[in-house]
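Notes from the 1:1 (GR / supervisor)

We went over the backlog. Supervisor wanted to see one worked example end to end before approving the batch request, so GR pasted a single chain during the call. The sequence is below; no edits were made to it. Supervisor asked that the structure be written out right there so they could see what the output format looks like.
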Amino acid sequence: MMKFNLNKENVLKILKLNNVPSENSGSPELVKARRNIYLQAGLAVLTIVLTLVIIFSMTAAWYTNIVETSGLVFEVESWGYSGEVLISDKVVAAAPGDSGVVGLTVSGANEESSEILDVKVNVTKDAMRDEMQQRMFFYVDTAATENGENVERVYLSSLKDYSYTLFSGGSILMNDDFSNVPALKWQWVYDVLGYYVIADYNAQNELEVTEYIRPIEYDFDKATFKETTQTVTVDETEKDINTYEIATVDGTLTPEEFLEEFSKKDGFEGTLNIKTPEEETDTEDNPFAEPVTIGGKEYYKIGEAANGRGIYARLCTYGEIEEETRYDTYLGELAKKKADGETDETGSYSLLTFGATVGVTVEQKKIETTVVSDVTGFKNAIENGGAIALAADIEIGEQISVPAGEEIWIDLGGNTITSGVTGTGGAIVAEEGSSLTVVNGKLEGNGGKTGRGIEAIGAEVNISNVDITGFDRGINISDEKSLDTDSTVRVSGCTVDGVTCAVFVSGNGTGTGNKTQLIVDKCTLTSELYGIVGNGSDNRVGTDIQVLNSTVKSEGAGIYHPQRDSTLTVYNSTVEGYTGIAIKGGYLEVINSEIIGNGDMLETPEGSNSGSATTGDAIYIENNYEKNSISVVIREEENSGTAELKATKIESKKDHAVRIFDETRKNVKITIYGGTFSGIGKINDEWLAEGMRTDGTNGAYEVVPIA
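Structure output shown during the call:
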């Protein structure tokens, strides 16, 4: 939000006056401009109070076999699910325009199990007042295709859920720091401009809104207005007053035209064709949508919901937007009174807290498979698509490809595929736009330690409980600038080794607005040269790597991360190598993890445009690329009681715990919030976060809060 140096009391007074300018101005554009300045300035002043006081809490409803209350977890074992479902009970502070992640953890069964779970999540808001239902929405942060329409995110409700696939030994982790799946988020819209609702008939056969399911948003700064005259009765006397209507929502489209266009990409089946005063007749092929009155407001029906209920859409009028602005301001005034300790004589402080219910359903995924026991049957099954169950070990001499648009599941059933690929070939390759899942077995090279085990090229790949060994690169992610899609590769409960690397990650540069993603959870990665390695070339940057609950070890660098515009998160894991982590670009965050460098000391490193210096540091930072910057955050969180987290330990056996190549220090930022550091040299004070200090001797330092 923009901040203006305005007096708060004056701002609140102006907002109470409906943001109407003096009679001398008369310009709708000025009305809009003043309205935005006052609103943004007022909320900017109040945001601190709102953030501290206006809150909503979340409760959890477990429909299947998990109930959690005050840390007590009950497990129902009637059909064998042995994982846990936990939701954060943290009270969430929120204000208009804010959004955040719902803290949710779902763990799969143990690694020995072969079960695949379907985890469905939905959200209900029936405990919220209508005013907050119009403001607070929940969505999964991923693009999708619904009813043939492309949507940027998936909004959840009591009728709409989102499904995650969870493999045994894996987990679903969502929090404000990182998410290993598309995150479930909450959003408090900044302006209430419109919304979709579910409506049903009550006992009096009248339509009434039962749930607000998604917002309608546009850039209110671009809206234009027209002045109108309205006759009202005050004290039995009629009086003409001037008011404003929205002429266009973006300077071009009328509200009707905008709503028609919006309905084409909302993910619902119907699209609107709204009659305007200039249009007199409709046709059988393209009939006009007729407005329906619900609660005194006009809506347009978009489609049918379950049980005969309908889905309706409405754009708010200028007067309604003003009214909603006043309500936000009223909440801000209440929040300030509460923060100042004023007595709640009217009981209004109850408006500052509101709740939602997150529902989680866990079921075993039902997959119909084609059983094969030889190479010919395996190849035929790949060509036909679908799910394949391997009943015996097989040897394959050439590359197996999953073509674009295909979705292939391979259940190895504890068996082994031995591949004869050599050079830069991949044993199993997922082409651009395809989806590949491989579970429960082994994938081996034929002894030459060449080729790649599983390769993704702009594809979605899931690998669970698979040992990949005997290749030059165990897993190869080969996104390039020419691709229109980014790979997402999730590896859980696996053991992967390689000669050059266990996993190679290449982004597609600026080819798309997203990042190539690698998520490693509960895995062991080993290699002779790099555990995980990226590429710093301009056409291969743009990656998001998450190492969770895993071990990465290499005789060279545990992780080598040269790519800019990229993120690397190491959570509750161990990374060990001659150099623990060598980073030359992007953002690194180490959370409750051990980073260990066990190589010899290199007293004076020399920068290189290809590769990095070979040091024995735990974390070595070398920034000698043009227009590059590096940020490193190291912290330690307290154990929550749901899972035992490692203590953060950054250790070099013979060199520095953390070192920056001297010539590039000005482009590097390090922030340390906690952990124990051991090696040569003292941790620099300028690296410590505010409120932290170092404590220790003889090359070992602990970062602790200032008492």
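Supervisor's comment: Residues 66-317+352-363 form one domain.
Batch request approved.
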